[in-house]
Model the fold of this input.
Amino acid sequence: MTDSKYFTTTKKGEIFELKAELNSDKKEKKKEAVKKVIASMTVGKDVSALFPDVVNCMQTDNLELKKLVYLYLMNYAKSQPDMAIMAVNTFVKDCEDPNPLIRALAVRTMGCIRVDKITEYLCEPLRKCLKDEDPYVRKTAAVCVAKLHDINAQLVEDQGFLDTLKDLISDSNPMVVANAVAALSEIAESHPNSNLLDLNPQTINKLLTALNECTEWGQIFILDCLANYTPRDDRESQSICERVTPRLSHANSAVVLSAVKVLMKFMEMLPKDLDYYGTLLKKLAPPLVTLLSAEPELQYVALRNINLIVQRRPEILKHEMKVFFVKYNDPIYVKLEKLDIMIRLASQANIAQVLAELKEYATEVDVDFVRKAVRAIGRCAIKVEQSAERCVSTLLDLIQTKVNYVVQEAIVVIKDIFRKYPNKYESVIATLCENLDSLDEPEARAAMIWIVGEYAERIDNADELLESFLEGFHDESTQVQLQLLTAIVKLFLKKPTETQELVQQVLSLATQDSDNPDLRDRGYIYWRLLSTDPVAAKEVVLAEKPLISEETDLIEPTLLEELICHIGTLASVYHKPPSAFVEGSRGVQHKRLPGSAGSGESVESPDTGSAAGASDAPPAVIPSQGDLLGDLLNLDLTPPATTGPPPPATSGLQLGAMDLLGGGLDSLMGDESEPPPIPLRTDTPQSPQVLHQSPSPPDYSPTELGGDLGGSSAMGAGFGAPPPAAAAAPFSAPVSGGLDDLFDLGGGVGMPMGAYSPPKTVWLPAMKGKGLEISGTFARRAGVIQMEMTLTNKAMSVMTDFAIQFNRNSFGLAPAGPLQVLTPLSPNQSIEVALPLSTVGPVMKMDPLNNLQVAVKNNIDVFYFSCQYPISMLFVEDGKMERQVFLATWKDIPNDSEAQFQIADCRLSSDAASNKLQGSNIFTIAKRTVDGQDMLYQSTKLSNGIWVLAELRVQTGNPNFTVCLKCRAPEVAQCVFQSYEAVLKN
Amino acid sequence: MSASAIFVLDLKGKVLICRNYKGDVDMAEIDHFMPLLMQHEEDGLLSPVMSHGNVHFMWIKHSNLYLVATTNKNSNASLVYSFLYKIVEVFTEYFKELEEESIQDNFVVVYELLDELMDFGFPQTTESKILQEYITQEGAKLEVTKTKVPTTVTNAVSWRSEGIKYKKNEVFIDVIESINVLVNANGSVMSSDIVGSIKLKTMLSGMPELRLGLNDRVLFALTGRDKGKTVVMEDVKFHQCVRLSRFESDRTISFIPPDGESELMSYRINTHVKPLIWIESVIEKFSHSRVEIMVKAKGQFKKQSVANNVEVRVPVPSDADSPKFKTSTGSAKYVPEKNLVVWTIKSFPGGKEFLMRAHFGLPSVENDEAEGKPPITVKFEIPYFTVSGIQVRYMKIIEKSGYQALPWVRYITQSGDYQLRTNV
Done:
């Protein structure tokens, strides 16, 4: 007889029937009834109406029945909180039952009843169970503390359960220790600041002892807990490693991975020249390889983590290429991961084997796998220079198969190979062109068009080829359209005579007939470039491109370090920061690998690979992953570094960023003289960026172009309202109709972007100035600091002979010339004066730092006043730090020199904030977005050469910004913060 | 830390049984599992972990069931998968077969087991031998007072109960080596390794202390006794009963064994072995007319040994028909549902060479569906022999009652993942 009979009760009056049976006097009937109730619950029927009747069955000496009733309670208590109280008495009683199974069952179930009202009744029974003589009860009670903490943290703290839990770490029973560790870790994870797990050498020693005796799961809890510890020195680190390594021989893959995590973290602290370090490295490879014979899901987890390990310590697995060869019956997710690791391990030594395998894979049937295999061949070519030729010929072989998706994928990667090895493999272009017609995927079409445009001078019929694409221009996807536009412009610049018509055709298609703003803008820019200065256009469009570099999809070093500390977890499977798994992403402790011990180790041995040195040296490679450091769009607008005032006629394109006075209103079109000095990014992708994971190179990406133009907002703000007709004139374009659109962009006229200048305030009231009232402000205009004052004569007599002097001040501010009040100031008259200031005067530290004491003299008397200037006017124009320098400096400045501030109630997007700040010479170096939170990394430089580095965190929808400032002169932080606030809020 | 809830679903995604351990993930989230799985499958992005909003599903499939763990935290994924497989193991030992029917037929025990296996997302006791001592399928028959927690649950020796008694004390040791080979279409061996496993069937009374001696080269180097052939084990994995730190320090394999059958250890050996059964194949496909297959199998092992139950599985196109075979030994059979020819040789002596020819017709209308290139696979067993040469030197059994016990050892070598790629 099986339990399945319980699922087949009569439909009619079921609840009623059950009710009667539950209240039966016969024990057996009661039990049967409870089973039926549970069966109904299992299939999803609502049997909550039976709550009181089921609870009545709770007081039984039949263990099986009791378990079923408890199960029912766990499911329905939340929906019947008032009735759940009925159960409390039985719980309390059961916690004192002579049978430890029942005591444990009661304490385990109690914690699962997440009803606030009854939690306080449970404290006493729990306290007893925590001290129970039977370890089975104690280990269950330990977990119950974590459950209770989840429901009511305050209660648990008030009752002192946390301390009891900590005491259980010293329990004599290893199972109890393991559960106590698990419970504490769980609580600590949700309350990162609680400092619950203050791990010290004594507790570590206890944990390591328990490690040898507890179950496999307990071993995982302990190892995961150990991974949070940071040893004091390399000796301690080594001794822990020695005691953890035996776990690598455990049959449970999860134990092995957790042990690998601890070892990977702690070996960071070992001196690299230590023999033990080498031994440990050698010990790690075999267990990692063995994980690949585990169940496929565990293989997958292992492979995702090996991917991280290979990036951090490539030497561990460098001889194990073969084990990553794909087997026919591997699940697709295992195949794809193996492929990825194969490429990471590819080197000159094994490339022949790898290529043979990849070629084999490229003839499989699974389309995704085949595509990735073809792409992998391209990556090998770029990574291992010696193999490039072989890779190219392999790709050509594959193109000959004429399998459609293989051909397309091959063309995409060949384009990358051209970017890496220009002028080397162009002989294959003819073969590629043969396949033009079979390309139906945008990426492949775009790649092919790029190739035709780039090598137009060698392809006799380039114009015909491109023209053929032009026919269906509007049906193409944006990336193809953009690429086609660029390619035809390239062609025109190379062979101007035959292709004039073609270029006009594409320009008008792009500018008039398209409603895609990126396409239209790129079209206009080319148009303008070509019409104003073809030579410059050539320089810009045909500029030499930086080579793409090899390691492309490396994980950003700090993220990599964090993920290494979380080996085995979902974060390391997804390769996402652990904070992504916490709602609100607040209160997460970012784990970092510990620094290595001793002084001599600060330089990583070269064989650890370029990505490895993150903790102690600036990374050699800026990773290209757009999600982290990428998105530098706004930066492209940054004006070229100028120390002095910028040239009076700024070029049109720069207006958005540079136009301080709104005086550059001569507009984009009015300024005919200079071509834009910033190279058009359409053809010059940013140098360290390489393009494998993001499937298209930057020159295809429509957003990129949007960025080049500074985004229409910045642009629109910069323009005044140029008279459309006049502006159109220099444009020798055949049609001007579409152009009006362009001017409309600027038509709205926003506020001029520029350095923030506070409104004038009264510095010297007339009362104190014997009738002279001075109000003023400071501003930075075109790189020059100005003190702008309004002098008002409120006295009865004329004032003359004005002069001004400053006391010594923090930044050496001094008048750069005399106070220019040329005409005598009559009574009731005001005059505006702008006094240029220099920063070369005598220095004395003031308090507050930005205090300035001024003396003004006139024919009546000398008046003294003091005022405070916004420190932002000292921010110089060349305050944009190189990214590498920024990274290094940020790391270099000790954390205690970091100051954090909140800016409340600021309703700007991160981009708008960045633009605003840039107007005041606070430059955004990089931006990354994590969980909807934008982090802007910014630098600014004071006139006295002090650099201030900032991290501005903007959470979408949250008007409160956080600014972290790092500076070698921390005393300026407060002032800088005030400037931030002032700039952002105005 | 790990799972918030565990679900057992049928193939349609209907929940058969579930257990909510933490209450931090809405149990209704499981409704997204099936659609998500189908979406992933359609996109060719099948993955053992999937997300819906901030809920992550980690799943495995067993017969006609999905076992799914949900979480919204940064859980230890490897622990979760290990645990899910452990559930399969425990349920299988309880119900013989783990499938839809056995879940329904035993739902009360399943609930009890789920309660005991995991608490608040932390795996607890997962040794089915021990669980069977206090969670039984005939729960009703047991007197309540008798159901006590076996001390084993919380003992350091959590895998063996006290008070076990046998009349005759014996241990059976099986040394099983599986050969994994991957051979390229041009006949070069891409990778090969040996995965060995030492299995015990323990029928010993009391709490015996066992020590197993192998001809492990590292051990012999440590002790300086270098007699005869030794074996280098690349990586060794042990059952939790083996004292790992002891092994780490002096390579001694010492343990108190679980009762009955268990896998004591497994090892991996990297040495390049000659594929024991070598296959040469010529497969010629004449489109629209026929496929001709010639397979030569050669036993590359000692003449005295014999491989049993050899099966050579040769892939054929899915639209092949009218098979004809000719074999120099054994029999060939067409298995259309797997698109295979299976050539079976009951007994294959070392050093011998056999031949099989097959002929298939192909339809004149070509199958336009692309087919993969499945490899030829081979299955075999060679008793009384290990490729690596590993040997059990001794098995010492000491129990405080001082009984005499006999160890019995058996060796067998078999095919593991044995694949030979073809040209077609």
Q: What stands out?
A: The two ends of chain A are 79 Å apart (CA to CA).
